[in-house]
């Protein structure tokens, strides 16, 4: 089972690196917002793998709160970016 965890964590690290590239190079503000949202999701997924490895469910409410905060933050930032883009 540890091989599966290592493979999943490696894939999450690769996805995180690609997301950071999009975050830094993103030609538009909305691309950067989407990259931040994906990065938050990847952090939650990596923390979920940690919960699965150590079989410690005490962090699950924290994971749900971080995921919800990431969603609300990205939705709000997208709305503000679109509103600012419309005023130009």
What does this protein look like?
Keywords: Cell membrane, Membrane, Transmembrane, Transmembrane helix, Transport. It is a multi-pass membrane protein. The chain is mainly alpha-helical and about 90 residues long. α1 runs antiparallel to α2 (about 30-55) and α2 (about 30-55) runs antiparallel to α3 (about 60-85). The radius of gyration is 16 Å and the shape is flat. The chain is about 90% helix and about 0% strand. The chain has one domain (about 1-85). The chain has helices at about 1-25, 30-55, 60-85.
Which characteristics define this entry?
88 residues, 0% strand, mainly alpha
The helix-and-strand class reads: mainly alpha
What's the structural domain tally? 1
Count of DSSP H/I helices: 3
In round numbers, the mean pLDDT is: 89
Q: Provide the low-confidence segments as ranges.
A: none
Beta-strand fraction estimate:
under 5%
Helix content: over 70%
Q: What sort of overall outline do the alpha carbons produce when their principal axes are compared? A: flat
